[in-house]
Amino acid sequence: MYEGNCGFQWEMIEYYCTFETWIIIVSVVGGILLIAILIAICCVCRKCKRCSIRKEEKRQAREQDVENRRAEERRAAGEIRSTERNRVADEIRMKYGILKEKENGTDYTRMD
Question: Which InterPro entries match (predicted)?
Answer without folding.
Answer: PTTG1IP
